[in-house]
Amino acid sequence: MTMRRFLYTLIIVFGIVSTTNAQLDPLFFQQTNLRALINPASTGKGGDINIAATMRMQWIGFTGMSSQAAQAHGFVNSLRSGFGARFVMDEYGPKQTKNIKLNYAFYAPINDDAFLSLGLGLGVINNVYKGGDYFFPSHPDDPSIPMETKSDTRPDLDFGIEFNAARFEFGAAATHMISNFGTIFGDSDPIYDRPMRNYFVYSRAKLSINPHWDFIPGATWHFNQWQNTYEVIMGVRYDNNLIVNVAYRNPMNMGITVGLTLLERIRVLYSYDYGFSDMISSHNVGSHEITLAYNIPMNATYIGRRIQFFRWKMF
Fold it and tell me: Taking the model in full, what pTM does it have?
């Protein structure tokens, strides 16, 4: 077995034992621009109709390591509500997770400068394991590396809350609310554990430098029973047409995001991040992430008046 193949097998087994047990939701590096993927309370925020597709290629140089997402959402004035749909697929070696949900958010004004939104996401989640596609049956009696293919689909529910003011945002969300920690196939093998609850807490602020430039710092905390991940982001924005973010994510992962508005309605974001403490850092060239979004402007007056801060979102 070559060194590359050995390392590939090692990270898959390690991932199965550590991250798959916890069924971590993928945290895209562009999560500040993709809030509705982690928090249904952000559905429809901004008032426009937004359609976006994202692909993350994790650990370039190794196959079967990627995450994809697609979402569409908008705001309905008369109902003070946001409606949307999202799809996320996460691949980690022999394990594949697909999650599709319909999102709803209700927006309640606090005063002329702030509002609160509550959101629900309801759908299904599917887990597939294909051990035979990645491992060789050299040890058929080893229960830690099962070779069979198994699949499970079950209902799924997310909940979230978000507070927005003219220059500040704070949100919290919980995913897989009706899927507690346990097994999905009736056995005790941890590789088949069903999704456990993931929690997200985040905030960001907008600090104006001049009429064209804004400084936008933020932070995100993603945690569950097994793992905690935090991310600190420093961003600058120029007239909502250019955004540059630099982020640090533990443990020892750094990256940069650049976003551009093209033809007024089309927006493109690209990210590159690299894990300095990764045991395979010398055998891959980091991770790439790209988002293509299409924005349809709407006259979102919201409770009878146009609230400019409702549109301060970066993308």
Answer: 0.81
